[in-house]
Amino acid sequence: MKIMHVDASAKRERSNSRALSRYFLERLRDQHVDLEIDYLDVTVDTPPHVTEAFAIATYTPADQRTDAMKATLASSDALCARLLAADAFVFAMPMYNWSMPSAFKAFIDSVTRTNLTYVFAEDGSTVGQLGRQKVLFITSRGADLRPGTQYSSMDALTPALKAAFGFLGVADPAFVDAQPLQFANPEARTEALERARGELDTVAADWAQSVRSTEANNEAMTACEE
Fold it and tell me: How does it associate, per the subunit comment (predicted)?
């Protein structure tokens, strides 16, 4: 199983989202899933922000792009190729001021590409090309934004991620949100992290079962062909 693992926290070893993403991958390995990890830290290798040159190059037909346009799109082309080659995505990030870190938004802008990660159907509608991949978002949040809480209406992160990746074909992403993680309430913080790890255990078991089912089906098809 080839997983593209993207971290987006400005923190390093003190990051809860990073720690939880590593925890999830460890649980997959515990389930004996053979993993190939394509790792990207967007706080270190931040995709370039959109410029006028990028926008013009993106919407210029590929066979009409100049060498300068191709150079402008080169890093974006490479990122799109990595996404399309993966079997699953693990995106880990904190919530900053109710939404995603700017480095991850730059990532989204870089991989939302006409005729690469989405194409146009004959009727003019768009068809996302990431429909086959499993997707897990792991987020860490200082406030408690679960339904029914004081700040639930201020969660701009979840709908933004669903919209951006839904456009690219991701219909049913999994979310594990560690919240609330305020230092002022260590008991609630501990409970939130424990709850998140429990949810990640469940997602890992589901993914592992899906991998085993796929492998069994492939073996059965191979046997029939023989």
Answer: Homodimer.
C-alpha span between 226 and 178 (Å, rounded):
49
pLDDT for res 221: 65
Is the N-terminal amide bond of 180 cis, ω within 30° of 0? yes
Domain ranges within the chain, ordered by starting residue: 2-225
Tell me: is residue 16 an annotated ligand-binding position.
yes
The 3-state DSSP class for residue 155 equals coil
If one counts every other C-beta atom within 10 angstroms of the C-beta of residue 141, the result is 24
Predicted TM-score (pTM) of the model is 0.94
Write the CATH number of the domain with boundaries 2-225: 3.40.50.360
In order of 44, 165, 174, 179, the CA distances from 154 in angstroms are 28, 20, 20, 14
Q: Please give the Cα distance from 23 to 197 (Å, whole number).
A: 8
Q: Does the annotation place 17 within a ligand binding site?
A: yes
The pLDDT of residue 93 is above 90: yes
Strand-pair category, 174-178 with 2-7: unpaired
Which helix (H) or strand (E) is 218 found in, with range? Answer: helix 186-225
